[in-house]
Design brief:
The protein has helices spanning 12-16, 109-112, 144-147, 160-165, and strands at residues 3-5, 38-42, 47-63, 71-89, 91-101, 118-128, 131-139, 169-177, 180-181, 184-193, 208-216, 239-254, 262-280, 283-293, 299-301, 307-309, 313-323, 328-339, 350-362, 366-377, 389-399. The strands form two sheets. Strands 3-4-5-6-7-8-10-11-12-13-14-17-18-19-20-21 form a 16-stranded antiparallel β-barrel. It has 400 residues and is mainly beta. The chain is globular, with a radius of gyration of 21 Å.
Amino acid sequence: MKSIIRLSPCLLLLFIFSKSYAQGEIDERAMIEDFRGMEFTSKEKTFHINFRFRMQNRVGLYTQSANDFHIKEVEARVRRLRLRMDGYIINSNLTYSIQLSFTRGDVDFENTGVVNIVRDAVMFYRFNHWCYLAFGLNKLPGNRQRVNSSGQLQFADRSIVNAAMNIDRDFGLKAYLQPNIGNHHFNIKLALTTGEGRSVNFTDDGLAYTGRLEWLPLGLFTREGDFSEGDLERESSPKLSIAGGYSFNHRTIKTGGQLGKLLFQPRDISTLIVDFLFKCKGWAYSAEFLMRQGGINPVTMNEFYELRYVYAGKGFNQQISYLFKKNYELAFRYSNLLPDEVLKGLETRHDVIEAGATKYIRNHRIKVQWNVMYNIREGNYRFSHPANHWGTLFQVEFGI
């Protein structure tokens, strides 16, 4: 097939540092509009593919305790290495998105024993400007921080709340509706999926049912900034998104529903999500509340008395940031996880206070991040508490 190379490799660096910049990355549809990586389009324009990559290289240090600064753990690795391909076949109504991961921490090997290279493999069909469907493997419409791409974050990692309770990716059918009522914009997202995540060949008879509603009462964010952290667009007028969602995973066999180790017996997992985002003139504030239940008893046991369980409890995360001139940003985050009484002796309260400094060189595509965090256990904020400790992360993200 004859192809036209719209952006040759020899012009790649010129592209990266060019003055113009397109919208941020979105994981809920194919990125084929105003987002140029290395592109190939067939001569008859019935096939299009857009290649992009990104990597996150980091070094982290973690102390023995809050008042003992001897290093207990060193983290030096490639946190993420992703290759993403988006495009269309026949016409721009029939699109696809493929995302592959190549680092050990990205393939979920520790939980599943399987190298899960494929993160997304999904087809989209757009009926009109406000309605489209997805079939395949991609993100569920979960909490805001999880829906945001990991390449659009203002901290090196998502919060502990997201780590404990997000619903991640799943295979199935999703519907996305985007109606407008005056200046009020709505995103309605529905999903019917297997409930088993991205690492299985066969599924049981339980399915997952997920729904999410986003309300933008002050109009659309510039360049879809509600899918990225920090106000890099410096919204000239206030922008607001209020959202809520619910997911029910029937008879799941994993500790996190779509994620985690295998349970010894299946459990029903319900997850309630409420979140909020505000941006204006360089300021950004976001908050999210998650509550998860694992049925009557979230704990499972095998014949050797080993325990595996669903994290049942509540989590709250909030973060605030300001973008200074020359794209320097300061951000602060507070996260709290409170397990249910049924997990007493297995889980304790966990709080994290975190500060971050970021230099955006090419918006979220190329950035340098430094984070400092204070981990607090059992609700005891004192430095003398032996379970508390400090951590710091330095990370460079580079991609197109």
